[in-house]
Amino acid sequence: MMKNVQKGFTLIELMIVVAIIGILAAIAIPAYSDYTARAQASEAFALLDGFKTPVTEAIADQGSGGCAAPANAVLAGKYVSGTTFTWTDPSCAIVSTFAATGTNPKIASKTVTLTYNNTAGTWTCATNLPAGVKPAACS
């Protein structure tokens, strides 16, 4: 007589595998959401960083008139809907606003502000992005 040999997996074994996959997905999906939000938010910081040198030089040459977008400047991107320049003596504030649609909900319609203080010659960063998304250097 031949012995019956079990082939395949039992129902319990399959249920355990499905449960493990479910737990891993529950952990990975929120982490992925934070990752995509940080990646999309980096676009604003890259755009703003490119304005530091030309704006600093323009303010040194022209005063308050230098608080403007340099010629041929990129003011918007895939996730940033626009960038504005505002002079409030003695500072130039450059504000990038994220698009309301097509972005991660954590950054939608949020802003990043880079401010140049002409008296001190320093740049400061401020944002209303959630703590898990904004860089540590931008409070």
**Beta-strand percentage range:** 15-25%
Straight-line N-to-C gap: 77 Å
The description of the largest β-sheet is: 4 strands, antiparallel
Summarize the helix and strand pattern as letters.
HHEEEE
CATH class: Alpha Beta
Task: Give structural notes.
By secondary structure, this protein is an alpha+beta fold. The protein has a single domain (11-127), classed as Glycoprotein, Type 4 Pilin, CATH 3.30.700.10. It has two helices and four strands; from the N terminus they run ααββββ. The protein has helices spanning 11-49, 52-62, and strands at residues 80-88, 91-98, 111-117, 122-127. The chain has a four-stranded antiparallel sheet, covered by helices on one side. Strand 3 (111-117) and strand 4 (122-127) form a beta hairpin. The longest helix has 39 residues, at 11-49. The protein is rod-shaped, with a radius of gyration of 25 Å. The protein starts with 10 loop residues before the first helix and ends in a 12-residue tail after the last strand. The model has no long low-confidence stretch (mean pLDDT 91).
